[in-house]
Amino acid sequence: MPPYLSPAWVQAFNAALAGLDLTDAIAQAGAGSLTAAQGAFSVAQVVTDAPAMPGASGGIVRTVLNVGDGRIMLTPDPDETLPSNVTIVVAYVDALSIARGELDPADALAAGRVRVRGELAVLVAGQSVLNAASLALGRTLTELTDLTDQGDTANPDG
């Protein structure tokens, strides 16, 4: 299994979600946000202290989750050229724990382990759509994340 947030992991994530029609989930998620209510929005995730891997530059990995047309897609954005409605900044070990379901995103936010710039309601909508995608798949998205990956920046092999 590829390391979390590596280009190969992003490709596997997108492949797992490619056939899903999330139109209803996106509409429901948008109820709390003027931006998300339009049915199209994006959430950028800036992960710091990432281990050495393709797609990580200086220990930073930036991806953008694009939601629209009933679909979601994650795109690597190392040059920070893709627009987003909200940006979260989180350390790799915390992002990995959230992806695995070991750390609740709301708890991480309350503890200051996740920083948010932009419309918080869009972030909530994005999480809601990801949860709906997990239900539609019949498995959690955490299954795409290697449980042996410890986010050890001293060991690039994870």
Based on the model shown, name its key terms.
158 residues, 5 helices, Nonspecific Lipid-transfer Protein, Chain A, five-stranded mixed β-sheet, alpha+beta, globular
Topology:
Elements lengths: L6 H11 L5 H7 L11 E8 L12 E8 L2 E6 L9 E6 H9 L4 H6 L3 E5 L1 H18 L21
Parallel strand pairs: 1-4
Antiparallel strand pairs: 1-2, 2-3, 4-5
Explain the overall architecture.
By secondary structure, the protein is of the alpha+beta class. It has a single domain (7-142), classed as SCP2 sterol-binding domain (Nonspecific Lipid-transfer Protein, Chain A, 2-Layer Sandwich), CATH 3.30.1050.10. It has helices spanning 7-17, 23-29, 92-100, 105-110, 120-137, and strands at 41-48, 61-68, 71-76, 86-91, 114-118. Strands 3-2-1-4-5 form a 5-stranded mixed sheet. β2 (61-68) and β3 form a beta hairpin. The radius of gyration is 15 Å and the shape is globular. The protein starts with 6 loop residues before the first helix and ends in a 21-residue tail after the last helix.
Provide a short characterization of the protein structure.
This protein is of the alpha+beta class. It has helices at 7-17, 23-29, 92-100, 105-110, 120-137; strands at residues 41-48, 61-68, 71-76, 86-91, 114-118.
